[in-house]
């Protein structure tokens, strides 16, 4: 079993829909990252959080440390949101670079 | 304000050759991280470096792979005697010195290595 599990693996949505991507992890963590990988392969860091909730534009990330679970929400989705969304955690005692990655959720938003 | 730069973007090598991948961190960043993404697989941590110092190399294969981040110039990931299984996308990320508990990482565009 992977230490970081994401669901769903693939997600197709219509433009304007509210989207939720989930991430569960089995290790104690000091931080959790949400990344976006574009179809061309480039990676953008969306959020880094260790508790609570963060919001940036139409993106919201939440984390529940007790339940070892994080969600990424996209409001009013748009075709340009189509990408692979990756959850990554830094475990307790691990160096700040030693991230454990989920396999990603491939999102496709149709116009 | 240039981001993390990697070159080359694409690299083709024949089996047995050496591959050198370069990463220039963002201005003011002194920490560099290398990750590998094999085809159809997730990202895997390889190595974390400060200037002139390897902090964590627990993800590096034991043989043929090495990394450095000299005082001057880019960080280099070196793969000797490449094999087909080394074909992957190699991403570099950088972050500022740890002055806050959890430092965000900024990723480069990646180098796609193809071994023929």
- Into which percent range does the helicity of residues of chain B fall? under 10%
Oligomer: heterodimer
Major sheet of chain A, described briefly? 6 strands, mixed
User: DSSP strand (E) fraction of chain B?
Assistant: over 45%
Globally, the shape of chain B reads globular
Average of per-residue pLDDT values of chain A: 93
For the sheet with most strands of chain B, the description reads: 7 strands, mixed
Cα-based radius of gyration of chain A, to the nearest Å? 13 Å
Distance between the termini of chain B: 36 Å
Number of strands of chain B: 11
Mean pLDDT across all amino acids of chain B: 91
Individual helix count of chain B: 0
In whole angstroms, how far apart are the ends of chain A?
36 Å
- Unreliable residue stretches of chain A: none
> What structural category do the secondary elements of chain A indicate?
mainly beta
How would you describe the shape of chain A? globular
Helical element count of chain A? 0
Structural classification of chain B = mainly beta
